Amino acid sequence: MTRNDTPGTAGTPEDEHDLRISGGTVVSAFTGEEFAADVLVRGETISGVVPPGTPAAARAHLDATGLLVAPGFVDAHMHIESSFLTPRTFAAVTLARGTTTVLADPHEIVNVAGAEAMRWMIEEGRGTAQTQLWGVPSCVPAVRGLEHSGADLGADDVAAMLRWPGVVALGEVMDYRAVVGGEPRMRGVVGVAREHGALLDGHCPNLSGAELSAYMAQGIDSDHTKNRTEVVLEKARMGMLMMLQEKCLLPEVVEALLALPQLPPLCLVTDDLAADHIVRAGHLDHIGRVAVRAGLPPAAALRAMTWTPAQRLRLYDRGVVAPGKRADLVLLRGALGDFDPAVVLAAGRVVARDGAPEPESQGGAGSAAGRPAAGGPLTGTVRAASPGPEDFRWLVDLPDGEHTFRAMRTNPRDTYTEAVEIVLPVAGGEVRWEGRAALVRVHNRYGRQGTVFAPLLGPDLAPGAVATTYAHDSHNLLTIGTSPAAMAAATAQVVADGGGVAVVHGDGATAARLPLPVGGVMSPAAADEVAAGAREVRSALEEWGWRHLNPFMSVSTLTLAVSPSLKITDMSLVDVARRDPVTATV
């Protein structure tokens, strides 16, 4: 960037623009057209989109020759904690990929430490170049009565938090069964959000027919979960804003949407992306490329990453390259559908180049020296003793002999868990599961009593184990393994780290670990360090035999009691569809 080298008249100081972006091709999020134009910026605002060479004085010049000038990307549904990064570090690494605005739902950390945790998240993100808006988690715990988390928020708590600066939404209403069934607490939470005029984000996989109508009648008008193709169309037809994350972007879904008489409004969202994925493959830019590969036209994908989510978030000052709009811009290399950011501007300032943040423009967030605070009140939240192998003996009140047990079966594609049956021997009051199935154990990490076991089928696992406190959404201590010794070793490592993920191969050697001492779900370390740890854990899981499109999510959602169909909490196995606890024996 150079100064005073753009064509133009001398003008007066008040007529002078701060920046002229010349030589580029502007992409209209309204019409999908690409046209040659110079973009002028004054302060935080686009002050002109003019034919190339139009006289206009500017203090600085940015050469965009060969680049596309597009609006900054807007992510209307995501969770910062899923990156394992704190908000300031997250802002730096995702701005570099073109994401200039996010609506973050911090229901992971708020389930750990309540309203105090959300206030900490907001403060950590304040002052970054990224616009971070917030949703108050609606389900803390995710399903009251079926699990214990570190906090419990009711309607009064939600009403108070909705008044905080930067808070614009009620976070995804995951307990859709409670809404449809008229459960008073959930109806109260939704009711106060409606009274406040907040956005109401949904979560209702494959909800259809009369139940979908009952859910939407409460004012909940978006969904980001994976649905059957016919349910995607039904929801879109009803006016529910479909937010498509990577696992939703199947060619048959895109084809069905494009076959409609009119393409409905769509948002592309990230939902849950870990740091190693963001560093390696990208953030919302990656989702855009996935959408294009699935058949969505590049211009439609851009609109679903800019204008539509901006309208959803009531941010009428962005989402299109136009005079009077906020100068959040992404200069893209190559074809539009490549979504390859070369330069990123936020509020008129260059904040990233070639996938790397500009440290001086990130409020300190773009460098190791600018690491966020170490977690303050959110450290030391794992209140569980370091276990031994004896803690992984599955004891039952059953006579000796073979018994039929309820088991969870995973798949390598999504987070759906099927309820199946397995026959296991019992001897001396202990289930002899080794060599016949893997074992899942959930142990309360908040100082309460609560330990539940279940067999796990699906992956072909070598000897070893994984343990983690990153276990949606109550984030209790989850361990999966093939032997008590391996399970004890992995769990002891996580407890020693103050939370995180640890993978053990064999009976005790730690193959990989990712310490997450901030609430047991985030790290205060720099993005590259966290990404390296996450990459090692992912590799160790795959080497162990846990092969999945998203191994972190596959493991961590075994405890998500609102996600079909059989889950496990610190209180019981849960039949999600019936919203009921079920016994281990059939």
Report the biggest beta sheet as strand number plus sense, adding barrel if it closes: 9 strands, mixed
Strands ordered across the widest β-sheet: 23-22-21-25-24-27-26-28-29
Could you estimate the helical fraction of the residues in percent? 10-25%
The Rg value, from CA coordinates, equals: 25 Å
DSSP helical segment count:
15
Q: How does the helix and strand content classify structurally?
A: alpha/beta
* Average predicted confidence as pLDDT: 94
How many angstroms does the end-to-end distance come to? 69 Å
Strand content: 25-35%
- Count of DSSP strands: 32
Unreliable stretches (pLDDT < 50, length at least 5) are: 1-11, 363-372
Global geometry: globular
Explain what you see:
With 586 residues, the protein is α/β, with parallel strands linked by helices. The protein has 15 helices and 32 strands. The strands form six sheets. A nine-stranded mixed β-sheet has the order 23-22-21-25-24-27-26-28-29. The longest helix has 19 residues, at 107-125. The relative contact order is 0.13.
